[in-house]
Amino acid sequence: MQLAPAHLSDHLKRGLRSLYTLHGDEPLLLQEFADALRAAARGQGYTERTVHTVAGAHFDWSEVLASGGSLSLFADRQIVEIRIPSGKPGKDGSVALQQLAERAQGDDSTLTLVMLPRLDGTATKGAWFGALESFGVTVKFDPVDRRNLPQWIAQRLQLQGQRVAGGEEGQRTLQFFADRVEGNLLAAHQEIQKLALLYPAHGDGVLSFDQVENAVLNVARYDVFKLSEAVLGGHFVRVARMIDGLQAEGESEVLVHWALAEDIRGMKRVKDAIRAGRPMPMALRENRVWGAKEKLYERVLPGMSDAVLAKLLDAAQKVDGIVKGLKQPDWPASGWQALHRLAGMVCEQCAAPSRAGASAGRAGPGGRG
Fold it and tell me: What is the pTM of this model?
């Protein structure tokens, strides 16, 4: 059984199950969910708790299997937690987890909680995960999308009796906050808690932009994959900020260049496939373009000419040399400056469809701009 994190409260009203599997790459959300389960379990008499962290290929699973069947003299119910930081239980672990899952059926004396990182498709198709899903409740924790981060921050502030001003000022405050904590939800949570300490809620609990600006640190955690989506979305300012952030965090210039160049090559491959007669959905699928990038490719590719793609490919080749220490005429000698320029070139082309659509919208059907 799969359960969405937002439905926990309704789920608990119907009673606890004996087996839960939590997996995802948002540690804060996973930890909060686990805390809520533990609190509910304690309220129902689960007074004992044991924790097993699976580390190394030679982990002894017999201890885990034994703990699920043994209670102390002072407890009627217990919580058994199994943490697998690698997400790979191994051959023995796979067998043990299947046994635990089957044993959980009808056992109201033990609450088993399995905690995992983000799993790939191979792991979720494994027999051990299938057993956990069949005999218990599985909960997946996806990252909070950048577009939804301001609203997430607003909801968290509301829980502690605070809010930003209404209208444009409030939106500006939330966007500022989101920019400073992007990609680092745990840091966002900590900064929100800090605001509760600095400005205890009283009266209407409204936080001004200046109060947030003075309190919130720049704790954004950028990665090259989110940079790629920002570039394809044509977000100039955000892209420049992310590249600066990657540089400050000590990211490799070569890796950042790879992310930019791979998207340019990907757009060229998809464009060539479409010219060869492939429908766009098929061309995207054959070139392994999925998820958020799929929608971005669908938006920008129709307006991307062969000449533009050729120019971008040439620029990517030149920047490849620059980040490896070579000099190129009419290009910055600094690898990071060259990456800024390359990203800006791609951004400009990817933003063009949006500008064209906006102009068409203003002109109206058959109207004049």
Answer: 0.63
